[in-house]
Structures are given as structure tokens and as C-alpha cells.
TrEMBL record:
The keyword Signal applies. This is Purine nucleoside permease. It holds the Pfam family NUP. GO terms for biological process: transmembrane transport. Keywords: Signal.
């Protein structure tokens, strides 16, 4: 489960507004010039050590395998942007949303037709998939803003003490939007950020036959998951949702909450597969940038790979299982790039087809 998020909702908002204002001032003051049209950006959350040549993190396999050899200096986002000769850009968010916003508002670049692939490792729901598996998301669900009562003091008929602000109990939507003051429509309280589902299905179709890596120790650990057939399978590629929450939660009761929270905010259509600490923040940021006219939100994709399970195996100790990513990390780094690479290649190789027409696959 990726655990390197450096920014919350208020930081994201302030960064976007201030940087957007700076971009406007820069554009007004500088002579008009043609901006470079950016075709594709792969976004990683963090990296261990260097971007290449040592043990990989979320970014290094993309840098090395996609030959992102050229560093691109960006004011406000030092040493985070690379590109290759085919037109693929890579970004590692060393400073969180500040890096993302600084890159997008740089007047040297035009992002109006850019495709985005947000990547990373996650905790994986053992009811849905196994460690090393990779999921294309249709929704990113926000698990941050909610009400919480200590589980030891909740009413006897409650499954847990987490529930939506404005609701009267868990697993129900708020009835009165005025709990948020200026909000007048319950729909505005939604915690599900909808991605372009036709594009997500298309990406899945492109990548679904990719051969994924496995690991002997990861395979051996799968045997402990008796009664969880999805957790015992080798790594696979599927479609399923990502839940982002700054709290690094773990365990069966919270896994049940995550499954139900995703269903609640996607009207029963979403499947909880992956959980991490930053997806919700970056999707909020991208929607702010889209509302300001910098990017096209319909071109955003999200691909997450499982590095560890979101709860311990049957009979396992929750405190030992918590954060025990072990060999799963390397497999998750590897498979994330394996699954995403053919989608990147398809768009770049046929840019004339996809520049003005976003691909889509039917239900």
C-alpha cells in the first residue's frame, strides 16, 4: 500500500489556486509562443533513491523500460519530470500535488489533448484479487472526509463506527446536504470521482493478455488464504476501484467498511479492489485543473497494483500483517509497468487516431 502522500485537501486547493494565478500572470507578461503539445504523461507517487540504476520504486521501471532519459526542468517541480523521444513524459510526485500543478501550468506545455496514467502500488482486497494483480479503476473513491465513532462504543447494530457526514448511520447516504453549509444538493457530497469508464474498459482490453510477473515467496504466501479463492490466484489484470484514504487502515472490519463505502458512493456499481493514501488527493487536484481549463478530465486513467493485502490471512496477526509488503512490492512495481506499457504504446504509436478521438470500449 503506497504510503508517501504529502498533501491533503486544503493543500491541494491552495496549490491549485495560487499556481493557476501565477500561470495567468506569467502568460500575460510573456510574449505569445506556441506551447509543446504533450501526448501522454505517466504519474508515479514516489521513488526509492535514484530514478534509475538501483532498487526500483514506483517510478524506476517506467524510467528504465520506457527510456525516459531526458530530464525536463520545471519551475516549482525540481527533478521530477522526464521524457523520451516518443513523446512520453514521466512525473514522480516528490512534493505531492505541488509538482503536478507546477508542471501543468507551465506555459511551455499544452495539456489539452494529453492522456494521463496515474500509477502506483496499493493494498489489495483479498476478496477481489491477489498480490501482484493490477486493476484499472472506473472510480476513485475518497475515504477521508467522514464521521467516526470508536468501534468499541458504537450502537450494537452498527458494523463499524465510520459513516458519511450528514448520514444517520453507516452504509447510508446523507439525507440533508446542509450539513456542509453551502451545499444544496446531496449529489455534491459524492465521494466517488468518476473516471472515463469507456476509456478504462478500452485500456483493460488492450492490456488484459499481458503476462505478469510472479514470485516464489508471494506464491507461497497465497496458500495461507484458505477460503479466499481470488487471493490464491496468480497475479491477474482486472477492472476495479481504488479507495484513497490518508489513514493507513488495515484489517477485516475496515476491509468490510471499504467494500461497502465503495458500493455506497458508486450506487452499487463499483468493486473495491485497491487502497492507498494518495489517489483521492491527486484526482481532486486534476479535477481542479480541469475546471480551470488546463487538462481534459476525460483522458485520465488510473492503474494500481497490489503489493500487500488489506487484511491478514485467516488466523494471521493483524499487527504483523499491517504494512508487511515484503516481496510483494517488487512484483507490484514490475506488473504495474507491464500492464500500462501497451496502453501507452498504442496511443503514442497512433497519435493521429487518438489525439481528437478518445478511445472507448462498450460495457
Amino acid at each position: 500500500m503506497s504510503k508517501h502522500d504529502r498533501s491533503g485537501w486544503h493543500v491541494a486547493r491552495v496549490a491549485s489556486v495560487l499556481l493557476a494565478g501565477a500561470a495567468c500572470l506569467s502568460a500575460c507578461a510573456a510574449p505569445a509562443r506556441a506551447a509543446e503539445e504533450v501526448k501522454f504523461v505517466v504519474v508515479a507517487n514516489w521513488e526509492n533513491g535514484a530514478d534509475r540504476g538501483d532498487a526500483p520504486g514506483e517510478y524506476q521501471n517506467w524510467v528504465e523500460r520506457e527510456h525516459l532519459d531526458e530530464k525536463v526542468p520545471v519551475r516549482g517541480a525540481p527533478d521530477v519530470v522526464r521524457r523520451n523521444k516518443a513523446g512520453l513524459y514521466g512525473v514522480v510526485l516528490r512534493h505531492g500535488v505541488t509538482d503536478l500543478a507546477a508542471f501543468v501550468i507551465d506555459p511551455r506545455f499544452d495539456f489539452h489533448h494529453t492522456y494521463w496514467l496515474f500509477t502506483g502500488i496499493s493494498g489489495v482486497n483479498p476478496n477481489a484479487a491477489s498480490v501482484g494483480s493490477v486493476a484499472w479503476a472506473r472510480w476513485v473513491v475518497d475515504g477521508d472526509a467522514l464521521r467516526e465513532i470508536d468501534d468499541r462504543t458504537i450502537p450494537k447494530d452498527w458494523p463499524y463506527g465510520l459513516y458519511a457526514i450528514g448520514a444517520s448511520r453507516p452504509d447510508t447516504l446523507p439525507a440533508n446536504p446542509n450539513h456542509y453549509g453551502s451545499v444544496t444538493d446531496v449529489a455534491e457530497l459524492s465521494k466517488a470521482y468518476t473516471l472515463n469508464q469507456g476509456l478504462a474498459r478500452w485500456a483493460y482490453q488492450i492490456s488484459r493478455t499481458v503476462v505478469l510477473a510472479d514470485d516464489p515467496e508471494v506464491a507461497a504466501r497465497r496458500k495461507a488464504w484458505v477460503g479466499f479463492p481470488a487471493a490464491q490466484r496468480p497475479p491477474s489484470i482486472l477492472m476495479g476501484e481504488t479507495l484513497g484514504a490518508e489513514r493507513y487502515w488495515h484489517g477485516a472490519p475496515r476491509n468490510l467498511w471499504a467494500e461497502n463505502w465503495v458500493k455506497l458512493w458508486t450506487k452499487g456499481q463499483g468493486l473495491f479492489v485497491m487502497t492507498n493514501e494518495e489517489s483521492q488527493t491527486y484526482q481532486r487536484e486534476m479535477r481542479t485543473l480541469a475546471s480551470l481549463g488546463f487538462v481534459d478530465a476525460n483522458r485520465i486513467m488510473l492503474l494500481r497494483s497490489g503489493s500487500n493485502f488489506s487484511m491478514p490471512p485467516p488466523g494471521g496477526d493483524v499487527t504483523q500483517s499491517m504494512g508487511d509488503e515484503g516481496p510483494g512490492q517488487a512484483v507490484a512495481f514490475d506488473n504495474n509497468e507491464r500492464a500500462g506499457a501497451p496502453v501507452v504504446a498504442e496511443i503514442l504509436d497512433h497519435w493521429g487516431r487518438y489525439r481528437d478521438h478518445i478511445p472507448s470500449a462498450p460495457f
